[in-house]
Amino acid sequence: MLRYVLRRLLTAIPTLFLIVTLSFFLLRVAPGGPFSQERGLSPEVRANLERVYQLDAPLWRQYLSYLGNLLHGDFGPSYNLPDFTVADLFRVGLPVSVQLGASALVLALILGSILGIVAALRQNRGVDYAVVALATAGSTIPTFVIAPLYQLVFALTLAWVPVAGWGGGALVNKIGPALTLALPQIAIVARLMRGAMIEALRANHIRTARALGLGSWSVVVKHALRGALLPIISYAGPAAAALLTGSVVVETVFAIPGVGRYFVDAALNRDYTLVMGTVVVIAVFVIMFNLIVDLLYALVDPRVRYD
Amino acid sequence: MTELVLSRPVKGRSLWIDAWRRLTANRAAVVSVVYLLLMGVACLVGPLLTGHHYTTIYTDYVRVPPSLTAYPKPDQISGMLDELIRRMRVDLVAWNDQDDRISLTIRSSRPIDPRVVRYFDRSSSFADPKVETTSPDGLTLTLSTAVAKHYFLFGTDNTGRDLLTRTLIAGRVSLAIGLLAGLTAVVIGVIYGATAGYLGGRIDDIMMRIVDVLYSLPFIFLVIMLVVFFGRNFVLMFIAVGAVQWLDMARIVRGQALSIRRQEYVQAALALGVSPLGILWRHVVPNTLGPVAVYMTLLVPQVILLESFLSYLGLGVQEPLTSWGVLIAQGAKNIPSATWLLIFPSIFLTSTLFALNFLGDGLRDALDPKDR
Amino acid sequence: MSRFRSLLIATLLLGTAALPAAAESIYNRGNSADPESLDPHKTSTVYEAHILRDVFEGLVMQNATSDLIPGVAESWTVSPDGKTYTFKLRPDAVWSNGDPVTAEDFVYSFRRLEDPATGAEYASMLYVIKNGEEVNTGKAKPEELGIRAVDAKTFEVTLKSPTPYFLEMLTHQAAYPVNKASIEKFGADWIKPGNLVSNGAFTLTEFIPNDHIKLVKNPKFHAAGEVKLDVVNYIPTEDRSTAIKRYEAGELDSNDDLPTEQLADLKKKFGDQVKLGPYLGTYYYAIKTDKAPWNNPKLRRAISLIIDRDFLAEKVWQNSMLPAYSMVPPGIDGYTPAEADYAKTSQFDREDEAKKILTDLGYGPGKPLKLEIRYNTSENHKNTAVAIQEQLKPFGIEVSLINTDTKTHYGHLEQKGDYDYARGGWIADYKDPESFLGISRKASGNNYSNFDNAGFETLMDEAAAAGADPAARMKKLAEAEKVLVDELGNMPLLYYSYHEIVSPKLKGWEPNVMAVHPSRFISK
């Protein structure tokens, strides 16, 4: 198994290299640059800035020097936030996004499973329809609508929670963002769980067991959980990679100092180094979680083998 | 042996008939199909029936709330007259309302230019203004004008355009975007996946590695770059978005193709010298249609949501065209004050996505009852 | 429920590092954007200016009404030819580490600003200093810059030519002093909390990007006795709708922006907590003046005549902007903006004239005029462009709109890309008409219109030459503006106004055209 993991990690290197190369050049052919702004710069000042940030060198040389720095783990300074290096920004922001994302994922898995099981047990009855409708609603209403509505109801009208802000990581500050992030995910988990549960109820050996009076609900649920495990794992891998790296909408509306907003802001600001940082971070998360998913598969289902 | 090849479509047809039967038995799916058709017709025909053009600005009715009765409301006429009088830089002596026409007398310290009636022409609340009498010194004028009635069932937006018409136009755009991007994704995904799965071996390895690489690229970054490049043209942009969304499709189809390739009848066809392209077309592609149809119905709402996300970032379709995403993003910024800007487009968007989701579920159950 | 609520609030308080003990006076100040940098030489935005004004002190500063007041310099003299300024530094000016602020500090800072290796965006502002441009373009050594320390507390600046707005320029953050010792010690990290040595009313103690910047009162500041606040938290409020909700919930004491689309409702709800007033900024459309058919000033005039600015200001911007007919907004002492001649005529007179121009130029149903408006992404820019599109439509002018993200928009203009009309905005750096007119000069990096008018250039040169005589200079500038406005080198549409929300708990917040509100004059 160790060999398998090592081999997977090795094959990740060319993938990362390709991603970095692709993004680097894609970014550079985009119109505008980090210094394009409402208040235009005089040509002299622009020339100075480009020299200071080494943007005056030929593109291939910039690319090579970027690759070189990257190999040393140096992501460079941010162009639009020159007080910080890209690494600094991730050091501050990533823990925040990971905390929120992880809470949202756990929330989604727990609530989604409960809803899914309840719906399956009451299949094609009111509760079932209600759960399905709720789950669908959660995934069809855009986050940027849910978030301000949450603020309006729970922060302004009821005054239970603050409107926005991270508050140094206080629990009350996290509820809204975590819920908003979790909502569309709850819907997916509930659907997966419901399907697994229905199948479990139909399964021959369960029916036999129940007919023989051996089966209790806990047997059914256990069986359903086992059946749901594979699809949920394969869902949770990419979902975790996406959730843990933050969400631009949630972070902007709730004023959360995470990294999610960098994925959008940096690209819109042509903050070349920060964009590259976000690209690398995402790629590493995706590759990592794909590997974890595959390893978990083998753990859950002995028929899957590393080959 | 040709029998064998020919027998497939027949069997396939029965599968489709079966699926059709199962689908029509699913009440939620049927209701969804009907709803989607109605929505499509409403968006196509509706804008012609609302009595407003989607670009027309009603200067007097910026941000007015929805109402079942016509604008201007009786109590608004006085305020509107005052505003016109102010812009005409004259004084209002008197006005009264009779038989649907308003007559008013204005006075100024300097002779009044009869062109002032144009202010009434321009105004969206009055129509057919006439100068009735002019005093000999030209300082006093009597005018009459009709009141123009307008219905804004959904209210108007921040520049004074009818929200109902815009919501319907937006529906056209959103649905078109969803279908267009969905189709692009499916076409690319099917061709790519079928090719990779069918050819197998090294080529398959390389093709799937490319998919892996694209998977690891931050999707938002890719989309933003596409918008930056193709921003001027929404058709191009959503073909591009579709071109990003094909990865899942390619994986699904590849899996199917791999398993079909091992089937005996395909091996037999190969042995008979049917070209690989022919086999792909005759056997691989038709067999993937089930999952493709399911995937597509679930992809369309995803793309529509994605479009709304881009609109939130300000990267949506160009004005004066609009989409549900653009309207909702704008509405979300306006709550809590002008709630109608959010509520109506949201109802349209959410209900459509609901229907698409239920239809997708229904299709899945119908086409592959064993599959979850 | 109230117990639940207080429990929540208690949790919030415990969990919030930014909130200190209750007795302190804390100002939670909403700021539309985080600073890009806190290095005065690397900043350019007004959001940075707000913070740096609290942390640093230049030779001269602005008071609560944005009037010029002595800063580190307690007095100054100007030579009769208007070219040499001699500043007498106050004896009690010290850095936050206790070292005195000396003339050498200013020499170091001004040289650093102009040094090409610094890459300072605002280096061009102080090109008015002798050899400023030469140093910044590498043609002269930093030591040759026209500044010197006469003694520890006397600083002398020699200008290229008399520049009456030089003192106003010095209020800009680019002219603030920076601490040489700490820059040499910490390198790029000198602006980090804990490292930063500054000389303003407050010192930096925390900076968490996208979360908050915490400043605490600087006890060594020479006027520390008059500073009432103990802590100022600058909180970035990127999302304007969230900001107003945070204000309503008491999480912010003020915010420097409002969701303008809701302005009417906000005024109803918050009354005079909503602060609205003229602000030195102009919202304009740049016109590609060197491209047919827009090289015809008559045609440019026709377009400008048709646009109903009252509708834009009152309806689209809900009175958060004012109709503009000149490039320089009103509010600069001693200057009367040169408005377009149609400013006072009625809209239908304007339209009749426009119709005539269009007919004379042969435009009509057979030969429709096509016009493309480019604007950067923003709800209000969009609504403005949409309204203009509809206003031009009845005249047979086919307007198409192109919305791009900000970087693409300005990148396109910078590269002199093709366009017809493009949205632009200009906010004054310092209170002088030059700031607004200079952008239309042929050589300016902001001359997106490629405006090239000999009469305008001559008048601007004459105004510069008349530097020693402020009244004559203002007259020349007004004449230059008249040319600019008549020729439509840019098409001014609206004057900005500030729109902020300020809690009644805050004292010392004074309205002013620069929207400058130093925290040192504010109490809570």
TrEMBL record, chain A:
Primary site of residence: membrane
InterPro entries found in the cross-reference section: BPD_transp_1_N (IPR045621), MetI-like (IPR000515), MetI-like_sf (IPR035906)
Subcellular localization: Cell membrane
UniProt keyword annotation of Cytoplasm present: no
GO cellular component terms given for this protein: plasma membrane
GO biological process: transmembrane transport
Location of the ABC transmembrane type-1 domain: 94-297
Record carries keyword Glycoprotein: no
Entry's family note: Belongs to the binding-protein-dependent transport system permease family.
Protein name: ABC transporter
Organism for this UniProt entry: Ancylobacter defluvii
UniProtKB/TrEMBL annotation, chain B:
Residue stretches making up the ABC transmembrane type-1 domain: 175-360
Topology term for the membrane: Multi-pass membrane protein
Transmembrane annotation, as ranges: 28-49, 173-199, 219-244, 265-281, 293-317, 338-359
Keyword field contains Transit peptide: no
Protein name per the record: Oligopeptide transport system permease protein OppC
GO biological process: peptide transport; protein transport; transmembrane transport
Localization terms from the record: Cell inner membrane; Cell membrane
GO cellular component: plasma membrane
From TrEMBL, chain C:
Domain of life of the source: Bacteria
Family of this protein: Belongs to the bacterial solute-binding protein 5 family.
InterPro entries cross-referenced by the UniProt entry: Peptide/Ni-bd (IPR030678), SBP_5 (IPR039424), SBP_5_dom (IPR000914)
Signal peptide bounds: 1-23
Taxon lineage: Bacteria, Pseudomonadati, Pseudomonadota, Alphaproteobacteria, Hyphomicrobiales
KW Lyase (keyword) present: no
Places the protein is found: Periplasm
Listed GO biological process terms: peptide transport
Protein name, per record: ABC transporter substrate-binding protein
